Structure formats: structure tokens, C-alpha cells
Task: inverse folding
């Protein structure tokens, strides 16, 4: 942890605005540093006291025996700015500013104040956490520079989970969730307004802590990608899983985020694509962020997703199958020998096929459970297990079930979860180190997340990772006319419709002869984006005379508009089995984004599209296509032959390469439709914007 | 509770196979009848004992001083059958059979045994609960005829919730869920194999208990609809909400249900439509079944779904807006005066627009909370409230927050929920009678369910309910040829394509002249369902000569097949803005079902369809259309005019009426496509099956 060492492991901490009252913002850090065994020096600073919470108190920073490595600035408003300046000049390494009323309140003046503080700090080699931060808490070193109320509840907080957040509450709420489950959190950091040290930069430093086995992130805004990219590299390198909860998924959420932090709103689908690209699991909500935590800490090596379910309730068997099917975990098909052996053990009215229903017979014979587990353990079809014990208690040997389950998990080395509603039953399993969830839905959902995340990380690691696509911006962007757009695409290897650009009636007629059959005639102007509405698209023109006439009409229309006349395109009529859309744009934060989906007129209505971040592989492109609702059509349905997905994948990869190539300065691409056929695909319409 | 009084409130209960051990199947009911204050007579029967659990024990049924109203049969297998026969002959009113090994194990022999027991019972006026039942538990009367382990955990179980289930575990697991939340369950009944008294029939009797305020159902199989229909009538009449968890949603779940109960698998989407039709809320899983229970018991009268959120965490504000948006609850737009008043109370860095972010300022000033609530209470835009307190504790006056919240809820009379993760915080609110959930997602989801269920019940009550559609079955079903299908539909007022059925080449040519323009020619035979594949559909035939030739070809094709030749259809070519599908079939359990959706060739790929049960209104039909993914197209997108949804709704209603009319004996209808246009819609293809 060399990086940001002064933030995570300072040798001395001063508190400007320290308070005797441990429930005040300036009192909490003093209390926590003592409570959680901080080994370094504690310097409370408060001009009106000589001692605070048993520590010698100083009148000012200047009175300290040394320059502290970290200073917690717990005074408000402009006093905080002055304190930061003092710290910088005194040689402090980290100033942690708790005061609010900066960029989160006023995106102009507030942000300007933040920038001023950061400038002064950097001039003196100091870094800033905050402002508007609840603080950092490293329970590994005892450096708890935080005023969180949550830590008042715990005597000790030790473990292998790191939680980082821009929000104060969200840096600690997961700690409160996990603690009752016996899961300790080692890091709980809130970075506030991220004026200097961002949650991403801090996360990289935390990811280097070898004691961290799982990292959780709460993000309200992602203003830049570079730290998260580096974080992903560091984490994948050491197989550290990261789960991120990014709020502001919906318009209402984005509006709320903007009004309370002034934060930039990220395009949510791009966030999805970005996190997936980097092997980071995106949690839908708080519960999703913490629910599977235990499973990540088990050290399992999952090899598949075929589930075996065992319960003493037939209803739970059915609901488990429903839940598994819903998340995409198939029920394992057990071998005939397994079935035979189970039949030898279980009563005739039990069910020996998976899910295995022990029935209420377990009340008469508690040994049934321990007897069948070894049989199931031997079946190679099982990748993961769920044991559902909705009701047990007097008459059942629950401690034996728990011991048997733990031994079974040990024997197989495969993921195993238990669903038990009754706290008395859950406790017995937990005491044996088995992961317990209240119902089969939570259990299966967590199991699926764990297995799927493992698969995702393996996929991202296996992918040869090129350098991340650079951000480019253009002072000015200009639409290419359609002929130039098509030419650009053709020069990058995309299959475009056969066409000619005619600059005279004679050329137009010659083009008709050359292309043959009925043609499409389109007016071409870099000033006109919506050609159809002006009558600049004519389909099925069937004779050279007609082409000539249309040429003349279109030239007149364009010139009457006062638009540049770049000629008239004569193109082959091209049908397709399905109209596909391929698009690309440059996200201001995440850079180039490629979109593919169901195209045609209603692309915005059906929104059956997926996103990919370059660089991506052919496999990535195929996975993206497989997510579409129209995916079954690619295989061919109702006796149709399959469509030529290979060339579509080629086209996607080429668009990705073109967007990744900053020298090409392509700002956006809109290809709709791309006609997909049994053999090949063809770009029919293209709008490309380039930067200058 | 006159109905099934002997099952729910017997004056005397005998237990055949009674046991001294309260953890044995035959010991539990004796124990529970004593423990939960049963006032009637308890008669343990066991030939080898004189006393059981302090009660005088009898050698046999014949030795009892009277015929008991209820007998619990706690002996196994064939002994149970003998006992049932004894009971019937002795004048017992209810035999509750706990033994398993009947229909759930063997759908043939096991079911036959059940039928035999029921026959004997009915001959003597006795009714049967079970077999394979865990038993009934009415905590209102203390009649606990159950061997559930769950009730060992509770000293008293009192409340206003009724839980009925076919499964034993699921009749009690919700009790275990609700108890720690301080919510009592009055009824907890497991009906097992439903050989005689079904869960539905019992539910009607329970719904008549005026103390029941909310009914929960777990259903694994719905073999007949009549009891659930009657239940819905009874419940709606007294405003009793019903929430049903029906498992076997997925193929894997259905397979599990079949292998452990041999139960008939219901078509899941029809179950959805049926429950919605009857105002019953369908829970997706166990948690969904119980999660909103508290809200139903508050006695609120919700008037809308606009939400106001208040939190001391900006992150929770954002996540609440995300959660609300996801479930479809908009954030209320507060009045400018409200905003002004809030600004006067809150610090400048707080957010006064909804969601309202109090920020960590609440730590410095606990009164902020109590000060703003009365202001918000006055705003008419608010329909429901959520207060998010992710972290509080020392330094916060949580008891005051809880009191203020309770007073606020009282003042507004509007639904209010709290999201609080920390148990210490949750307890304070619960102590004031406020409903608390661990996170905003659960809170908002429960609130939305409660409001939406209320809306659904109001809608179903407002709908003039005709008699439910009858089930009809046909020994034989026969496909009508297309001409007859179209004629039948036309006679019921559906707009069908202009067509003629020609029986000779001359008639075909005359039809071409009469219809005008290009035509479609289709071979017509009641033996041929897939015409296209045999070359029996020709589009765009453009001359009378061509029509004549096609006529001759098609006659030859049909005759060569050895199929009936019913003529050749000449129909107008009809385009449409969108191809719609309307279908109908008769579900063996639920009767007629009408389907509408996105039609055309890929109807099975996109599955963008919804179901309706006749009788349904035009409003119901509109709501069904609004659920489709293609719904935005109806309004007109990208400058298109709207489509004629009114005539589509007409067509749907007419199909509903036709299916509800049993005398018409229509078994199924498949109209694909129905061409929907700006003006009108037209049925182009029709396949109708009739019963005989």
C-alpha cells in the first residue's frame, strides 16, 4: 500500500475542530482512533481546550510538535478553506475535509472553491480527501478518520471486505448489513466530492491491500474512467472481485443525483457496458451489493452452473426450480446410479430426481439427510448445491444437518448455500460456516451472481486486452455527406451497397446502366440529415430516363434549400432478411461505444440494442448479439436458413476498430439499416460525423 | 363461518394414532390443542395407552363417549384408509388424513385410493381434509389439527392474516416470517392432496371469518377454477385482499411440481390472467407473498401513487428515486410554496426538491425532521411517503424521528413506509407502529404492491361482472376451412378481408373482376392447415386469366393430397401498418382465454402478447394492448398518425364474446395477421376449430 499511504496508514493524525463530545463531527474521529486501536499520534486541535477525550489538545496546527501526516478538517465553510491552506503550508500530506457546502451545493462557485483548495494543496505536495466527506476508515491500521455514526455500534470491525463510496451513508450501511452476518469490513471509505483524491484512485490503493478479498463500490457519478480502468487491471491481476452499485439508473434517479450533488449524469447503459467490459459486477441495489458477499470469501473455484436442490419441502423444491430457472441456472441431471442409490435410502413417497424432496419423512428420520449427501457428492453433474430447510426445530436433528452440510461442502469443494427462514435453524448452519439465506430466491440469486461474476472475470482475463480507447473531443463536428460516409466505411472494410455518386444527369443515367435493375436514388448533401422528409429518397426507380429526371428534381430541391449540392447517389436496391442497426458514438466519459440491434424505422421504439466498448473481440460481439430479443432469428426460425452472423460480427469489429482509431476522428456513426441476409450483410444508409 | 364449520371450529377432536411424544406426528396435535387453548373435547386414541399428554386415551373410535366432529388420522398408509372408513360410519363430520403415499406418489393407484376414501366419506356425510396434509390451524378457535414444527416456536399466534396452502411447509413458513415483525396469523391451513376439501373451498370459509383482514395463498396446482372464483366474489364483497403465490412458473418448476405431487401443470400466463381478472395479487415468491403484509393491515385508503421521499442521505434519495421509477411510482412534484417553506427550515446545502435530502445536518440538528414533516403533509401532490434513515444512532434523536413520523402518518392518513437498515433504528419506528423495511427497494416495492393491488381490486369491483365463462369440452374438434372461418367471424361482426369462395374456374375469374386490383388466391380445404407449404397461397395475382390458372393448379394440388376440396378463396390484397395477432383457446382449467399481440411470422419468437379472460370490457382490452412492447406504435411514432385501436378493441371484445358463448362451440381461433391501420383493422387469415 505505497500508494496514498498517508490516507490509509498515516503515522499521525491531527483533528482541526476536535470536540470533547464523541457525537460531534469533530469528536467522532478522536473517539474512533482511540477505540479502533490506531497506533500513531493523535493531535486534537481546538483553541479553547487543553485536553480532548483524554488526549492533549493543541491551540493550532503551528503548536504541534511535528507536521502531522494527515489532518482531519472538521470545521465548517470558509474556515475549512483556511485550514486547508494552513495544512498545505505546514507540510501535511493529506487533508480530509468534512465540511459541506461546496460543489454539491453550487456547481459554479462551490466547485471553484474546491479547485482553489486543491491548487494550494498540490503546490505543497498535499492531497485532499473531500470536501463533504464523512471520512476514511481503515480497520486494518486503525486509521478511522470518520464521523460515521455506524461505527458507534461495533466493538471491533475486522475482515476482508473493502467498501468505498462517494456517499457517506453508503460507505457504512453495507458494514451494518454485513456485521450481523459475522462478515467484517476492513475498509470503509467515503470520499465525498472527490475534488482531488477520487473514489477510484483510492480504490486502486485499497486493492493493493492483500487482506482485501472483495471490493464493494458505491458510485453516484463516474466523471472519468481512468482510475476504474486501472483498478480493474490491478484487481483482475490478483483475482480480486469488485461489485459496484452505480445509482442514477433511471431518469428520476439521475434528477435526484443532480439536484443533491450537481454530479454529471452518466448514460446508464454505457455504465453497464463499461463495468462489464472491465469484469466488474454491477449490483442493482444495496441488497444486491452485499447479498452474495459471504460466497466470495469461501475460496471456492466454481466450474459450472448446474444446480442440485435438496429440501424437506416439496414446495421449496418447486420454488427453487422456479428461482434457478429465472436466473439461468439449470437443474443438474443426476446419473441413473445416483437415482438408484437415493431410492435405496429414501422412503417411497420421496422424490429422488433433482430437486430432491425428502418430504416430512425427515421428521421421523433425521438421518436421511446425512445418508443422501455422500451419494449426491459423487455425481459429476452437480456444480453447485442448495439445501432448503424451510421448517425444522424440535423433532429434527438440525445440528446434525448443519454438520453434515458443512462436511459435504468440504468434501465436494463446490459452492453450497442453504435457504432457511427460521433464525434458530439458520444459526445452526451458520455456526458450521455454511452460508444461509432466508429463502431460496435470495440463495439462488446470490449463487448465480457469484458463479456469473466468476465467469465474467475469467472471460475478461482471457481476453487479450488492448490499450483502452482514448477520449478525443472535437471543437467542431461535421456531418459527412452520404457518399463520403459510405466511402469511408468501404475503405475500412465494411460491406456497403453498390452505389455511384453522379454529378450530372448523364452520370446518373450511366450509373443506372452500370448498376442494373431497379435502383434507389438519393440526393446527397452534407447539409441535409433527413433526406426522406425533403423527398430526396426515391426507391425502385426502374429506367434510365426516370433516373435522369429524378436527378434533376433532386438537384433542384437541394439547391432551393440553399444547401450544398454534393451530387446524387444511385444505389442498388437491396433487400434483407432483417434490418439491423449498427451505431457508434463517443461518450464524454467512457469514450467510444458501439451499439448493435434491431434496426429499421422503429429502432427507438423497441430499443432492442446492446452496447460494446472497443476494443472488443469477435466473441464479445457474438455475446452482444445473443442478448438481443431478435437473437433467435439469427439461427433461423420456422424453417428459415440461419443468417450470416459472421459478417455482421466482422462489421461490428471493424466499426469498433474505426472508433478506437483516434486519428480517424470519427465522432459518431449511424448505420440503419444494415441489411442482414443468409449470405452477407450490406450497409444501405450511413451517417458519419467527423471531428476537426 | 357456517361453511366447513366442523373443519375450522369443531366442538370435539379425536386423534387416531395419538402419541405421548409431542414431536411425533400423532403427538403434536394433542400438544397444540392444549397449548393454544382449544375449548372443545380432546380424544386421543391409541390402543396401547390409557393417558396421553394428560388426556384420557381411548382404545378405539368406538370407545369414545360421542362421535367427535373432527378426527385427525395420524396413522400411516392403509391403516389410514381403514380409519377413514370407521370415521365415516361413526358419524364423524371431518376426517383429516395426515398419511402420505397417495396421489402425490402414484397418480393412478394413489389417486384411486383417495377417491375410494372420499366416496365412503360422502356416503356418510363426512368430508375429508388431505391426505398428505400437515393439518389445519385456526388460532381464533384454538383448533390446531396440525403437526407443524413451526408452532413449537410460538407461545401465542394471534392476528388478522390467513395463510392457506396445499403445501405443509408453505402454510407455516409465512407465519415464521411474520411473527418476528409482530404480525400475527389467525389461520394457517395446509390442505395436502385436496382429495375432497380443496384449498379453494376452505379459503371461502376462511374468507367469511370477519377477523381476517388479509388472505395469503400458496398454490402449487389449480385443478379447477370454481372455488377461486367464488373466493374472489366473497373477498371483493368485503374488501378482503388476497395475495397468491402460485409456484411452477417455469418449466423447471413445473417439472419439479409434477414429480413430487403429480399435480396438473397450469399454463402460467393463464394463471396470471386469471388471478388478475379476479383481483388477486400474484406474488412472485415467498418474500413477495409476505413482504407488504403490514401495509394491508393499516386501514389506509390510498388515492394515488405519487411518492415523496425524505432522507438524511443523498445516496438514499437517489436510490429511492431509482427504485420508485423502476416499479412505476413517480416522484411527486411539490408545490412552490412547499419548497419555499422547506428552504426556510433546512440548511442551504440540503435539497428541498423531492426527494428531500436533509444531509448529515440532521446529526447537528435532530429537530429538522420534525419541523419539515408538517410542511410536507400539507402538499396535495403527495400520495405516499418514504422516509429513509440508512444510518442513525448516538447523536440523533431517533425516538423523536419515530414519534414525528407516526404523528405525520396519523395527520395525513396516507401510506408511509420507512427504510432503515440498522435494527436499533428500525425498532424505534416499529415501536411507534410505523412499517419499516431494511432498504428503500423493499419499502418502495411493498408500497407499490399495496397501492397497485388496491387499484386492481377497485378496477375489478367497478367492472360489471358477468357470469364466469363456462368450461366446455368437445369429444372431437374439427378445423373449419378458411372460408367457413372467415364467414363465422364476419357473422360475429369482425372485419374480415373482402373475399369470395370460388367453386369453379369461372367463379374464380368472376371473383377477380368483382374484387378488383391484385388479389390473393388461396386453396381452401378443411384438411389442410399449412397452406403456404403446399403452394396454396399466391399473393398479388394480377389478371383474371392468372386467377383462373391458379384456381386450376390449386384444385389439382388439393385433390392430389387426397384432401377435401372446398374451393378456392379470392381475396383482396390488404396491407397494414402493423400485423397484429388475435388468438383464443379454451384452457382446460380456466376456460376461454383471448390473446392479443404483435403478429406476423415471428409471433412465437417475440412473444409480445398478452392474455385476457372473457368476459372482459373494452377498458380491459385497452389495458392489455397497453402492456405490449409495440404499444407505442399505436399512438403513432416518428410523425405517423395513430392507429385505429378502437376497432382492434372491438374485435377483441367480439372474440371474447364468441368464446364465452358456449353454444357457438368454438374451441380455438387463430387470426394472424390482423392488419391494423390508421382507419380500421382487417382479419386476413383465420383458423377456427369447432367442437362437436
Result:
Amino acid at each position: 500500500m505505497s500508494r496514498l499511504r498517508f490516507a490509509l496508514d498515516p503515522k499521525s493524525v491531527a483533528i482541526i475542530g476536535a470536540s470533547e463530545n464523541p457525537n460531534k463531527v469533530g469528536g467522532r474521529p478522536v473517539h474512533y482512533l482511540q477505540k479502533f486501536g490506531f497506533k500513531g499520534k493523535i493531535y486534537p486541535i481546538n483553541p479553547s481546550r487543553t485536553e480532548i477525550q483524554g488526549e492533549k489538545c493543541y491551540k493550532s496546527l503551528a503548536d504541534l510538535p511535528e507536521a502531522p501526516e494527515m489532518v482531519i478538517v472538521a470545521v465548517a465553510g470558509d474556515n475549512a478553506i483556511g485550514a486547508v491552506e494552513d495544512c498545505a503550508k505546514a507540510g501535511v500530506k493529506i487533508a480530509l475535509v468534512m465540511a459541506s457546502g461546496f460543489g454539491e451545493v453550487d456547481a459554479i462557485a462551490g466547485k471553484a472553491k474546491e479547485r482553489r483548495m486543491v491548487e494550494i494543496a498540490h503546490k505543497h505536495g498535499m492531497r485532499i480527501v473531500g470536501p463533504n466527506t464523512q471520512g476514511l476508515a481503515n480497520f486494518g491500521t486503525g486509521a478511522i478518520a470518520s464521523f460515521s455514526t455506524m461505527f458507534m455500534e461495533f466493538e471491533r470491525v475486522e475482515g476482508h471486505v473493502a467498501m468505498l463510496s462517494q456517499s457517506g451513508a453508503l460507505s457504512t450501511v453495507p458494514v451494518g448489513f454485513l456485521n450481523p452476518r459475522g462478515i467484517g469490513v476492513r475498509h470503509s471509505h467515503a470520499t465525498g466530492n472527490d475534488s482531488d483524491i477520487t473514489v477510484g484512485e483510492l480504490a486502486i490503493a485499497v486493492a493493493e491491500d492483500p487482506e482485501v478479498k472483495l471490493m464493494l463500490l458505491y458510485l453516484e457519478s463516474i466523471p472519468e474512467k481512468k482510475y476504474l480502468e486501472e483498478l480493474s487491471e490491478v484487481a483482475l491481476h490478483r483475482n480480486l472481485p469488485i461489485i459496484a452499485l452505480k445509482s442514477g439508473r433511471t431518469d428520476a434517479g439521475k434528477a435526484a443525483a443532480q439536484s443533491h450533488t450537481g454530479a454529471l449524469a452518466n448514460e446508464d447503459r454505457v455504465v453497464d457496458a463499461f463495468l462489464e467490459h472491465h469484469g466488474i459486477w454491477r449490483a442493482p441495489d444495496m441488497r444486491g451489493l452485499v447479498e452474495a458477499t459471504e460466497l466470495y470469501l469461501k475460496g471456492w473455484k466454481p466450474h459450472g452452473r448446474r444446480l442440485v436442490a435438496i429440501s424437506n419441502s416439496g414446495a421449496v423444491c418447486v420454488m427453487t426450480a422456479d428461482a434457478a430457472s429465472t436466473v439461468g441456472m439449470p437443474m443438474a441431471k443426476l446419473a441413473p446410479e445416483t437415482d438408484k442409490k437415493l431410492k435405496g435410502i429414501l422412503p417411497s413417497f420421496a422424490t429422488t430426481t433433482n430437486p430432491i424432496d425428502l418430504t416430512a419423512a425427515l421428521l421421523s428420520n433425521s438421518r436421511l439427510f446425512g445418508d443422501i449427501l455422500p451419494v449426491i457428492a459423487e455425481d459429476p453433474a452437480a456444480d453447485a448445491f442448495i439445501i432448503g430447510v424451510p421448517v425444522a426445530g424440535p423433532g429434527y436433528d438440525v445440528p446434525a444437518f448443519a454438520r453434515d452440510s458443512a462436511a459435504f461442502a468440504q468434501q465436494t469443494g463446490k459452492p453450497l448455500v442453504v435457504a432457511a427462514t427460521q433464525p434458530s435453524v439458520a444459526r445452526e448452519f451458520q455456526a458450521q460456516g455454511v452460508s444461509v439465506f432466508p429463502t431460496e430466491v435470495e440463495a439462488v440469486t446470490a449463487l448465480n451472481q457469484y458463479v456469473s461474476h466468476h465467469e465474467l472475470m475469467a472471460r475478461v482475463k482471457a481476453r487479450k486486452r488492448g490499450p483502452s480507447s482514448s477520449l478525443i473531443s472535437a471543437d467542431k463536428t461535421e456531418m459527412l455527406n452520404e457518399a463520403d460516409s459510405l466511402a469511408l466505411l468501404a475503405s475500412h472494410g465494411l460491406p456497403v451497397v453498390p452505389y455511384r455518386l453522379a454529378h450530372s444527369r448523364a452520370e446518373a443515367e450511366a450509373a443506372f446502366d452500370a448498376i442494373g435493375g431497379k435502383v434507389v436514388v438519393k440526393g446527397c448533401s452534407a447539409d441535409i440529415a433527413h433526406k426522406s422528409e425533403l423527398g430526396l429518397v426515391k426507391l425502385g426507380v426502374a429506367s434510365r430516363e426516370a433516373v435522369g429526371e429524378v436527378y434533376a428534381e433532386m438537384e433542384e430541391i437541394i439547391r432551393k434549400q440553399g444547401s450544398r449540392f454534393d451530387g446524387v447517389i444511385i444505389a442498388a436496391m437491396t433487400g434483407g432478411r432483417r434490418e439491423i442497426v449498427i451505431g457508434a458514438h463517443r461518450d464524454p466519459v467512457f469514450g467510444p461505444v458501439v451499439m448493435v440491434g434491431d434496426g429499421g424505422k422503429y429502432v427507438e421504439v423497441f430499443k432492442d440494442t446492446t452496447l460494446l466498448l472497443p476494443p472488443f473481440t469477435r466473441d464479445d460481439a457474438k455475446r452482444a448479439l445473443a442478448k438481443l430479443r431478435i437473437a433467435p432469428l439469427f439461427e433461423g426460425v420456422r424453417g428459415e436458413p440461419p443468417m450470416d452472423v459472421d459478417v455482421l460480427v466482422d462489421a461490428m469489429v471493424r466499426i469498433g476498430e474505426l472508433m478506437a482509431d483516434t486519428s480517424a476522428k470519427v465522432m459518431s456513426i449511424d448505420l440503419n439499416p444494415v441489411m442482414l441476409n443468409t449470405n452477407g450483410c450490406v450497409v444501405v444508409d450511413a451517417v458519419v460525423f467527423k471531428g476537426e
